[in-house]
């Protein structure tokens, strides 16, 4: 996009994110962000906004600080696991469990009976009765394997709010823009990433505008980038499977 003669404020120096964060925390309706880098604690700011029923939209890259980190970091709170239950298979599994338990009771009962009879009659031939007992244990073992391998649960993953994580490497272009749009009325652009260093410590440039025409174009640019069909985005389902445990039953 190109827009000329926009009215704006310019800030250069440290703490460039202070006013941005103040405006963002005071949002009434929506917050849209493009930032190739994110800090976990600032992701929590977006979660807080969502909890206040603010519409949040995020575009970032796999340069998120904890993209490859452990599951307790904040980025993973944006990915929600949904479990689907196959109730027909669950009924079958419960029947198999009862059958396996019944076979166990019968087997142990026959073992006890064989020992008593062998002791009472002093005849070791009675222990030939262990052959059907062994067969019962084998059958029970087969059912236990079937119970273990029967898939009852399947999973899919959803987002806490709409976000895209575009993958960047030596073959793909890096999204390097930093854009923040608040309530469709205030826009920030410049060098500051949505990180602790960018918003607080680094020497950054920041432009703030409420120019109506500029806001309209910026909003469209964000939405177009979010729906870009030519850029490779992280697969939410694959990412979720890497994050969460998925017991099958």
Automatic annotation (TrEMBL):
Domain (PLD phosphodiesterase): residue spans on this chain: 171-198
Domain of life of the native organism: Bacteria
One GO term (biological process): cardiolipin biosynthetic process
Keywords: Membrane, Transmembrane, Transmembrane helix
Spans traversing the lipid bilayer: 102-120, 126-143
Keyword set includes Electron transport: no
Alphabetized GO MF terms: phosphatidyltransferase activity
Keyword Membrane: yes
Record-linked InterPro entries: PLD-like_dom (IPR025202), PLipase_D/transphosphatidylase (IPR001736)
Protein name: PLD phosphodiesterase domain-containing protein
Species, as recorded: Pedobacter ginsenosidimutans
């Amino acid at each position: 996009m190109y827009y000329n003669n926009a009215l704006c404020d310019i800030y250069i120096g440290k703490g460039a994110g202070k006013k941005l964060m103040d405006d963002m925390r005071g949002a009434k309706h929506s917050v849209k962000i493009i930032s190739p880098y994110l800090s976990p604690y600032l992701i929590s700011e977006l979660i807080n906004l969502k909890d206040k029923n603010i519409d949040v939209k995020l575009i970032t890259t796999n340069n998120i600080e904890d993209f490859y980190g452990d599951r307790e970091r904040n980025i993973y709170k944006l990915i929600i696991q949904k479990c689907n239950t196959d109730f027909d298979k669950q009924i079958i599994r419960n029947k198999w469990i009862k059958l396996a338990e019944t076979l166990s009771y019968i087997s142990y009962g026959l073992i006890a009976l064989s020992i008593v009879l062998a002791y009472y009659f002093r005849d070791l031939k009675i222990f030939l009765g262990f052959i059907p007992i062994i067969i019962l244990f084998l059958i029970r073992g087969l059912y236990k394997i079937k119970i273990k391998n029967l898939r009852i649960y399947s999973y899919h993953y959803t987002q806490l709010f709409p976000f895209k994580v575009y993958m960047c490497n030596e073959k793909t272009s890096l999204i390097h823009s930093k854009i923040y749009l608040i309530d469709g009325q205030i826009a920030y652009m410049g060098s500051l990433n949505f990180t602790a260093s960018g918003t607080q410590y680094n020497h950054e440039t920041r432009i703030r505008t409420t120019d109506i025409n500029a806001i309209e174009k910026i909003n469209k640019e964000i939405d177009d980038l979010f729906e870009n069909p030519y850029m490779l985005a992280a697969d939410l389902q694959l990412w979720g499977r890497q994050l969460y445990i998925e017991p099958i039953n």
